[in-house]
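Readers outside the structure-tokenisation community will struggle with the description of the input data as it stands. What matters is that the chain and its backbone geometry are given together, residue for residue. For illustration, here is how one protein appears when written out as sequence plus structure tokens:

…
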Amino acid sequence: MILKRYWIKKREMEVINHTFMSTRGGCIGVVLANNEYGQMAYISVVGGLSEEDDIQKVKDWGSKVSFEIAKGFFPGYIDEEKYRSI
């Protein structure tokens, strides 16, 4: 039996924009998304084989990106009032 207090709620996120970078060592994905808490950007290493899978991986497991860095990745897409600071 799973106790309700240990149940993890999966957040629904609406992807606003995303970008990928490829190097000799692998691929990096950055995703800008809205959720119930506001706007946030996430970054993670990805496989580079499927765009949809890579976006999902970054949303689920990515590290948060600061406001200043996110502005550099997504100029014109960041809403200063909605963006959650780290």
Notes: The CA atoms of residues 57 and 75 lie 23 Å apart. Residues 10-73 form one domain. The first strand starts at residue 14 and ends at 23.
